[in-house]
Amino acid sequence: MLKRSSYLLAPVSLLGLLAFTWPLFIPESNFFLFQGSNTKWLAAAILPIAILLFIFEINYSGLDAKSVALLGVFAALICALRLLGAGAIGIEPIWFLLILIGRVFGPNFGFTLGVTSLFASALLTGAIGPWLAFQMLAAGWVAMFAGYIPRKVSGKLEIFVISVYAIIATQFFGILMNLQLWPWLIGADSQLSYVASGAVIDNLQRFALFHLATSLSWDIPRAIFTVILISIAGKPILVALRRAKVKLEKTSSGPGIQQKVA
After folding, report:
1. CATH classification of 7-261 is 1.10.10.10, yes or no?
2. pLDDT tens per residue, range 128-168
3. Disulfide-capable partner of 117 in 1, 35, 66, 78 (CB 3.0 to 4.6 Å)?
4. pTM of the full structure
5. Distance (Å, rounded) from C-alpha 49 to C-alpha 66?
């Protein structure tokens, strides 16, 4: 049976997906949330929900005290890695660790880690703005879906599958972040511009051109760098994470802890 906290992932993800993709299917409107100067309110609506997810995850026994402590350690590591990659084009070491942790500890833990670690690192780097909630949700999804990789995959095949997933996930992150910026970043008079009330297929074509023109120099190095790190360090880190998980399960009290962490 699904944990209560699991049910929170669907509405939060649905709201986040709507916030990312609404320009593609919502017609031109005078509604204040759909005006460029007010787009920050979309993020403001998502951010409290994302944080509440973490609170409910704890309060409804999705995570126990030891799991929360481990979550804090992982978040601190990711914050440190983000500082190492700050300002470098595509050199972002946080993704390989987020993916590996999500793989071992499961979708709920991975999503919570993605949300909290991006929030904490933004506080450290001063990268706080309307884009933050979108980054938090996208990072949460990257770690969450890594938790859905089949458990029976192991050995060299596991590293290969995780690497393929890393390529898809890092590109997915870049696409999402571009999508939330696209309607406001350029004017309305170019071939790359968002056209309010335009046909979905036309706006998709415009967005594809915009994405290819602006983000390949970030997205491709991000994917390559993440795969290199997974190939070099993935196996020993997976072993260490699984040992930490087993130790956590043994030292935590109460029935069903394995389901809580996995």
Report:
1. no
2. 776 787 888 899 999 999 999 999 998 999 999 999 999 99
3. 78
4. 0.81
5. 24
